[in-house]
Every structure is written in structure tokens, then in C-alpha cells.
Design goal:
- This protein has 1 helix and 5 strands; from the N terminus they run βββββα.
- By secondary structure, the chain is α+β, with helices and mostly antiparallel strands.
- Strand 2 and strand 3 form a beta hairpin.
Amino acid sequence: RSVSYVIGIDKGTTMTKAAVFDARNGSVLATARRQTKSFRPQPDWHEEDMLGTYDGVAAAIREVIAAAAVK
């Protein structure tokens, strides 16, 4: 019998959150968070370094997969 998982990513303006769920019952198996660096070059502007954002999302995914012991 195979086990299915779902990874959810919440990419906010200050934090990236990742979670692994058991697809059979929706239980949370593990979570991870990474802070997002942002810049405000002018009032009401929000900018991010896209390489830093990518690295943070990828790191959160790697961490949550390892913590959930997903193979």
C-alpha cells in the first residue's frame, strides 16, 4: 500500500512556510519556516531578492521533507 503526501507552501512577504501533509487523512507531518528578506526602496513599495526568495523556499522544502522522513 503506497503512502501519498502533499507539500503546501505559503510564500508571504515576511515568511515562507512549508508543511507536509498525509494525503490520506490531512494530518500535518512536519512544518518549516524561513524568513524572507524584503526591501522598501520607497514608501508603499515592497521588493525581494528573487534568488534569496528561491533559496528560502527551496530550503524550507528540503527541511520539511527531512523532518517528515518522506522518502
